[in-house]
Amino acid sequence: MEKSVSNEPKKLKLNYKRTIIIGFAFFGILLLWQVYDSWCPTFLTELFKEAFSLTNEEEVQYLVGIVMAFDNLAALILLPIFGHLSDKTKSPIGKRMPYILVGTFVCAVAFPFIPLLFHYHNVGGTIALMAIVVVFSMMYRNPAVSLMPDMTPKPLRSRANGIINIMGYIGGAFATVVGIFFVLSDYLDINGKGGWAAGNIWVIEIPFLIASILMIISALVLVFKINENKIEEEMKDELKLGEEMTELKEQVDDDKPLSRGNKIMLILILLAEFFWFMADNGIATFMTNYTIYYFGASSSSSMINTIVGGVGSVIGFVVGGIIASKIGRKWTIVFGLSLTLASYVVWGVLAATLFTFQPGSGTFPIYLYVIWFIKGFGMSLVHVNSYPMVVELCNSKKIGKFTGYYYASSMAAQTVTPIALGSILLVPSFDFGILPYYAIGCVAISLIVFLLIKNVKSAKIGFKKGLEALDQD
Q1: Contact at 8 Å (CB) between 222 and 146?
Q2: Which of 255, 293, 359, 362 has CA 20 to 30 A from 228's CA?
Q3: What is the C-alpha to C-alpha distance for residues 294 and 287, in angstroms, rounded to an integer?
Q4: 430: which residues sit within 8 A by CB, 6+ positions away?
Q5: Nearest CA to 449 among 281, 278, 257, 327?
Q6: Which is it for the CA torsion 190, 192, 194, 196, positive or negative?
Q7: pLDDT value for 191
Q8: pTM of this prediction?
Q9: How many CB atoms lie within 10 A of CB 466?
Q10: Nearest residue to 26 (alpha-carbon basis) of 132, 136, 176, 143
C-alpha cells in the first residue's frame, strides 16, 4: 500500500535556545552603548566648558555633537568593511567569531579609561579613548549582528530579531539601573557644593568597569556555545526553504545583481532608517543633558525614563514578529513609526502647554515616562522588522555586507544628528526644549519615505506552533 503524500505546507521552526545565546552578542553591544550615550555627552560638556571658560551648557553642545559625530563617522566607514571582510573570512571558529573576540577585548580594556581621563580633566585623552571604543566596537558589532540571519531562515528573522533585541535591552537596562545608583549629577555636584574635583571617581568608574566585565562574559558565552561552521552545515536545508518563502515580489538571485524593484526598496528602507535614527539618536544623545541642565533634575530621572522606554520596547520585541507574520513587516513598521510620531507630538504639545515643569525647576516631568513607554513600543516594532527586511534582499553569502548597509545608514544618521541638534542649540532663541519638535520632523519624514515601499507581498508563513515549535532537534 502506497504512503499518502501530505499536501500540508512545509513549516519552519525557530531554535529559541540558539537564538537566545546569539543574543548575548547584542547584550554586550547595548550594554556598552547605554553607558556610552548616558555619560559621555555630559563628560564632553563639562570638559569643553572648562576648556573655554564657559558657564552656559548650550554654547558647547555643537562641540559635543561634533565629537560624538566624529566617532560615528569612523563607524560609518568601518561597518561595511568589517561586514564584507567577515563574509569572506574562513577560520576554525567561523567567519564572525574572530572579529567578535578581538573587538570585544579591545573595547573592554579601553572603556574604563574614559571616565578615568575625564576625572583628571584630560579632554584629549577622553576623546581619544572614546574613538578607540567606537572603532573596535564596530569590528564586532556587524559580525555579531550577522550571526542571527546566518542561522535563521528568512521568514523567522523578525521573531528571532525580537529575541536578540530583548537580550540587548536587558544589557541596556542593566547599565541604566547601575546609572541610577551611581548618579552623574551628584558626582559633578552641579549645585556647587564641591563639584568635579572633589567627586568620588568610583561613581563614574564602576558603570564602565561593570560594562567591560559583562562584555567579556557575553562574548565568551557566544564563542563557547555557538559553533558557526557546524551550525552552517546543519541549517542548509532550512535556509534554502526560507529563501523560497520570502516576502519579496521579486526573488533574489545569487548570481545576479539586485533587480530594479529590490534596489529601490533597499534605498527607501535605508533612507527611512536614516531619518528615524536622526530622531532616536538625537534625543538619546542629549537626553541626560536635557534632564540635568534644562530641568535641573537628577540624572537618575533620565535613567529611570530609559528603563520605562525599555519596558515598552521589550513588549514590542515580543509581539513585533507576531504582528509582522499577520500583516507583513512593512505595515508593522508603518504602525510603529505612526505610534512613535504620535508620542512625540504629544510630548511637544504638553511641553508647550503645561507650566508645572519649568526649566530649572529641579523636577522631571512625569508625562515623559508615559511618552517614553509608547515611543519605546513603537520603535521596537520598527527595529525588530527593519533589519530582517534589509537582509531579505541578499543571499547567505552577503549577509555581512548588507548588515553593513543597514548599520551604515544608522551611523550616518548618528554622525549628522548630534551636529545638527547641537548647532540648533547655538541659536539664541533655542534651548533643550527644541528636542520634541526636532524628533517630530525627523520621524514624519521617515514615515513618508517608508510608505513609498511597494515591492513586498503579504504572505502567510508556515510556523510550527506549541510544543512542536520548541523542538530543538
Answers
A1: no
A2: 255
A3: 10
A4: 58, 424
A5: 278
A6: positive
A7: 46
A8: 0.74
A9: 7
A10: 143
- 361: phi then psi, degrees, rounded to nearest 5: -75, -15
Look up residue 392 and give its DSSP letter.
T
Q: What string of H, E and C letters represents the secondary structure of 305-356?
A: HHHHHHHHHHHHHHHHHHHHHHHCHHHHHHHHHHHHHHHHHHHHHHHHHCCC
Cell 530621572 found at: 301
State pLDDT tens for residues 246-257: 666 666 666 677
For residue 193 the three cell numbers come to 557644593
**Sign (positive/negative) of CA torsion 295, 301, 303, 306?**
negative
Neighbours of 1 (CB within 10 A): 3
pLDDT of residue 468: 35
Lookup: cell for 216? 567579556
- Tell me the average confidence (pLDDT) per consecutive run of 10 residues in the chain, 473 residues long: 44 86 85 85 89 80 80 80 90 91 93 93 93 88 88 86 84 72 65 55 86 90 89 84 70 71 90 94 80 74 81 89 88 96 92 61 79 94 92 83 88 84 77 85 96 69 38 35
Residues 6+ apart with CB under 8 A from 126: 43, 44, 47, 114, 117, 118
DSSP-derived 3-state class of residue 19: helix
Q: What is the pLDDT of residues 275-297, one digit of tens each?
A: 999 998 888 878 777 777 777 77
Question: Three cell numbers at 173?
Answer: 537596562
The set of residues, in sequence order, having a beta carbon less than 8 Å from that of 409 and lying 6+ positions away, is 270, 271, 273, 274, 277
pLDDT reported for residue 460 = 47
Amino acid in position 392: E
With beta carbons less than 8 A apart as the criterion, state whether 58 and 112 touch: no
Q: Which triple of cell numbers denotes residue 235?
A: 541549517
In degrees and rounded to multiples of 5, residue 384 shows phi and psi of -70, -20
What phi and psi values does residue 12 have, to the nearest 5 degrees? -110, 155
Q: Residue 289: what pLDDT?
A: 76
Rounded to whole angstroms, the Cα distance separating 52 from 63 reads: 11
Query: In the numeric block, which cell numbers belong to residue 71?
Result: 566617532
Q: What is the pLDDT of residue 472?
A: 37
Would you give the end-to-end CA distance of the chain in angstroms? Answer: 30
Greatest CA separation found in the chain? Answer: 92
DSSP 13: -
Structural domains in the chain, CATH included, are: 16-458 (1.20.1250.20)
Q: How many residues does the chain have?
A: 473
pLDDT at 288: 75
**Owner of C-alpha cell 574614559:** 114
The number of helix segments (H) and strand segments (E) in the chain equals 17, 0
